[in-house]
Design a protein that fits this description.
The complex is a heterodimer. By secondary structure, chain A is α+β, with helices and mostly antiparallel strands. Helix content of chain A is 29%, strand content 22%. Chain A contains 18 helices and 19 strands. In chain A, strands 1, 8, 9, 10, 11, 12, 13, 16 and 17 form a nine-stranded mixed beta sheet that branches. The two termini of chain A are 25 Å apart. Chain B is mostly helical. Helices cover 78% and strands 0% of the residues of chain B. Chain B contains 15 helices and no strands. Chain B has helices at 2-32, 37-42, 48-58, 64-76, 84-91, 102-137, 142-156, 159-173, 189-223, 226-233, 238-267, 270-276, 281-290, 294-321, 324-327. In chain B, helix 8 crosses helix 9 and helix 11 (238-267) runs antiparallel to helix 14. The longest helix of chain B is centred in the middle third of the chain and has 36 residues, at 102-137. Classes of the chains: A alpha+beta, B mainly alpha.
Chain lengths: 513, 330
């Protein structure tokens, strides 16, 4: 991953935009043809309201195809402008000024301007709104329209990630004054306009003739997304050429895809992680030596091999993954070491210990098997894990956050601050390890408002180190995004790892070979 | 005839009673499942406050008995309510407008399921009756054995297995038919038919054995009767004896079995619809049970129960009408 150009470009986004454009692959990308994709995560209650998005199908159709945000993340992980051309922050990262792209029109012909941005963002903090992006927009103290093409945001507290957060898939821009109509019919500024949309069944989009992204993106004349929630049906559809691309392949029949010369498998490691949080304020988990014994007693590589069947990479007990900006890739990994585990057991004054680990496949597929592998590897060091198989129904209400040691998963967050303040900040509701570490907390606040990338890298590096050495969450593995395309479709060499399907932008980035 | 009308009226009243009982059983069963809509839909985000908020929004905090009678009151007035998923999605925006009703949600799905049932019936009913007649005609021959073995093994296999075998044979190895039945509004009839053919064939394999074997058994049963012997003694050909003399008298049990199987085509398509991604009521039903969306589950079950009741009633009436002794009881 190329992080150089992103670092140091935080305070002002002008150059980033230029870099993003010049970074387009120089391959022969032909315009024309159609992309048909089979995607899961569809439901009959799907609609074009950004506040309700939670699963892949609508994120791909809306965020990736019909609508635009202020900023976007490229496949290489750089932040570039989408509807915003450039942005600038005050010294304390509290006031942000966004210069909007001019000459952009919505699919219904309305010109895009500052009012659209303000009204679209306000939807998320409307009375009673349960939008997933509510916390992001709630952090904005005021939104000021400076000119038709300039918006100023004053934040409640400094946040260096603010432009990054504006690329969140909930925060799509609607035409002001026509929001209801735009939500009903799907009217955005994206590369494709809605031809037909049948919730939970299919979406068809047609390329807009004259788009501000010009010839640099959006190579298909038409795209069709078919809702296929059943994995086997998705595999069949790809194998028989009914669709050109599918998300989430079935590992059990992966060999069949490999044997098909017309199909390529794409595999990228993102931020999706499988975890075992423990209540680090409760005995015996409050003893750092015991936590260390557990860290050395878990066989991470074995879990990647057996639970993910090789489709993943080992984790180091930090929730920051390869799709994050300040991912500490060179941090020394934790390896399975029963002797070390025994040593830390002695340090904790323990000879052997019996603990319960609650698991259910509701946490992640293979969670119970993973817990049993853990049981076997930790048993050598005298840590006797009793795997409690919990019912899948009500797992998140009755087990997670309640039982002192259980299985869990996180799909990760796009920024370090977002991830940490969701689950690692002292006192937040989803802090599943009851994590409360003074130095960590201090760094969290400092890094949030820090505009200098080098300093932030150090701060986030140290935080990841703290979690690796002392943290209360075991993160043995990161699961890959594994998807497949047939040879009718060409893609660039770098596939986005923030989301499945090339950051859901396949309609924008792929083309007919 | 007045007699038949009385029976119809009686049976319809009984049918309504059955529907009422079904609704109670379904409501109790869905409530007995662990986890409710709020917990399931929130998943990892099911903190006590969030669960309580959704329960309050949807009225899930009322007692089950109160919820049932509120639902029943609305249903009697023809209002099946709004699905929890729709109502919950609408509440994200802070208003409860814009959610479609259960009836509007189920309508197009039910039409799709009926379409699949009709395509299947058009294939399955003639095929199984002809096979049954032929099997009776050539009973105990190789043909009879082969037909029996084939239909019995297909009915004995799970539906998804048959579906995958058909996909393998007709879509993967010989690409004749599409394995994806994603039909939608505005699709040309021929294309719709082509896309529905694989699920229809799968269902045909599932229902044929029952109808075929009943036809065969009913006819063979009659072949021992004196009037058949008489027909034979007259020198009629075996085919004529069976089609003209035996078949009309065997109609009652055959119609019964056909009606039962038609009901199955409406209620039993759940697995097949999921395998072929067919947007019918079965798939909606599965999704709704998964998230404990009681209004949709109730509505689907009522449709299933109504289909059974009406088709059974039709079967009974048809067998009365096809039997002079029942038509004119002493």
């Amino acid at each position: 991953m190329n992080g150089i150009s992103r670092r140091g470009l935080l305070q002002t986004g002008v150059a980033a935009g230029v870099l993003g454009l010049s970074g387009m692959p120089l391959r022969a990308q032909t315009r024309g043809g159609k992309l048909t994709a089979g995607l899961n995560g569809a439901s009959t209650s799907d609609n074009w309201d950004g506040r309700t998005f939670s699963d892949l199908f609508m994120i791909a159709a809306a965020h990736g195809t019909v609508f635009d945000c202020l900023t976007e993340v490229t496949a290489e992980g750089q932040l570039v402008g989408e509807l915003a051309e450039s942005w600038e922050a005050s010294e304390d990262a509290k006031t942000w000024t966004f210069n909007l792209r001019q000459g952009v029109t919505f699919h219904n012909g309305k010109a895009f301007g500052a009012d659209d941005v303000i009204e679209s963002l306000q939807l998320h903090v409307a009375e009673g709104s349960k939008s997933g992006a509510q916390p992001i927009v709630a952090g904005i103290e005021e939104m000021n329209k400076l000119t038709d093409s300039q918006v100023q945001f004053v934040l409640k507290a400094g946040n260096a990630d603010f432009p990054y957060l504006m690329s969140d898939y909930h925060l799509i821009i609607y035409p002001a004054g026509q929001v209801d109509e735009a939500i009903a019919n799907g009217i955005g500024t994206g590369l494709y306009e809605v031809v037909s949309f049948d919730p939970g069944v299919r979406f068809v989009g047609r390329r807009v003739d004259d788009h501000y992204k010009g010839d640099s993106a959006g190579f298909f004349d038409e795209v069709e997304y078919i809702a296929i929630n059943d994995t086997t049906a998705r595999m069949n559809a790809l194998m028989t050429g009914q669709v050109d691309a599918i998300n989430r392949i079935d590992f059990n029949t992966e060999a069949l895809l490999n044997a098909n010369p017309n199909v390529r498998i794409q595999e990228v490691t993102g931020n999706e992680q499988y975890t075992f949080p423990m209540h680090s304020q409760t005995a015996p988990f409050d003893d750092i030596n015991f936590r260390k014994a557990l860290k050395y007693g878990i066989n991470r590589q074995e879990m990647v091999d057996k639970i993910l069947q090789g489709h993943g990479s080992v984790g180091n007990d930090t929730p920051i993954g390869p799709a994050n900006q300040y991912y500490a890739a060179d941090m020394e990994p934790l390896a399975y070491d029963p002797d070390q585990a025994k040593y830390y057991m002695q340090q904790a004054g323990l000879d052997s210990i019996n603990i319960n680990l609650s698991a259910s496949d509701a946490a992640f597929e293979g969670a119970v098997d993973a817990a049993q592998l853990f049981q076997a590897s930790a048993g050598v060091a005298g840590i006797n894990i009793n795997v409690v198989q919990e019912p899948a129904d009500g797992y998140w209400s009755n087990v997670w956050l309640k039982k002192p040691f259980c299985a869990c998963y996180w799909s990760g967050r796009a920024t370090e601050d977002w991830m940490f303040s969701t689950a690692y900040e002292a006192g937040v509701p989803w802090n599943d390890s009851q994590w409360d570490h003074p130095r960590f907390q201090e760094l969290l606040y400092a890094a949030r408002a820090e505009l200098d990338s080098a300093t932030r890298a150090d701060q986030y590096g140290e935080m990841q180190m703290i979690l690796r050495d002392e943290g209360g969450v075991l993160i043995p593995m990161f699961a890959n995004y594994v998807q497949a395309v047939n040879n009718r479709i060409a893609t660039s060499d770098t596939i986005g790892n923030l989301w499945q399907m090339d950051n859901v932008r396949m309609a924008e980035r792929w083309w007919v070979a | 005839m007045g007699n038949v009308l009385t029976i119809i009226a009686q049976r319809l009243m009984l049918g309504l009673l059955t529907l009422l009982i079904v609704s109670v059983v379904i409501f109790a069963a869905v409530n007995a499942l662990p986890g409710d809509f709020a917990q399931t839909v929130l998943g990892q985000g099911a903190t006590p406050e969030a669960v309580a908020a959704i329960r309050q929004d949807l009225g899930l905090d009322r007692s089950p008995i109160q919820r049932y009678f509120d639902w029943l009151g609305d249903a009697l007035r023809g209002d099946l309510g709004t699905s929890f998923a729709q109502a919950n999605f609408a509440s994200y925006t802070g208003t409860n407008s814009g959610a479609t009703t259960v009836a509007a949600q189920i309508g197009p799905r039910f039409a799709n399921t009926m379409f699949l049932a009709m395509v299947t019936a058009t294939i399955a009913v003639p095929v199984s009756i002809i096979l049954g007649v032929l099997a009776a005609l050539y009973r105990n021959t190789v043909f009879d054995r082969a037909a029996n073995i084939f239909t019995l093994s297909s009915i004995s296999s799970p539906e998804f297995f048959l579906a995958y075998i058909l996909i393998l044979l007709l879509a993967v190895l010989n690409p004749l038919l599409p394995p994806l039945s994603n039909i939608y509004d505005g699709m040309a009839f021929s294309e719709r038919l082509e896309k529905s053919l694989l699920p229809a064939l799968t269902l045909t394999l599932v229902v044929t054995a029952h109808m075929m074997r009943m036809t065969r058994a009913a006819i063979i049963n009659l072949l021992a009767s004196p009037y058949i012997e008489m027909a034979r003694l007259k020198g009629l050909s075996p085919a004529r004896v069976i089609v003209k003399h035996a078949l009309p008298n065997a109609l009652a049990p055959i119609i019964n079995v056909v009606a039962l199987n038609l009901a199955y085509l409406i209620t039993g398509v759940v697995v097949v619809e999921v395998v072929f991604v067919y947007p019918g009521i079965g798939q909606l039903f599965v999704d709704s049970v998964k998230i404990r969306d009681i209004p949709v589950v109730q509505a689907c079950c009522l449709i299933f129960a109504t289909a059974y009741i009406l088709l059974n009633l039709t079967a009974d009436i048809m067998s009365i009408l096809s039997n002079p002794r029942l038509r004119h009881p002493k």
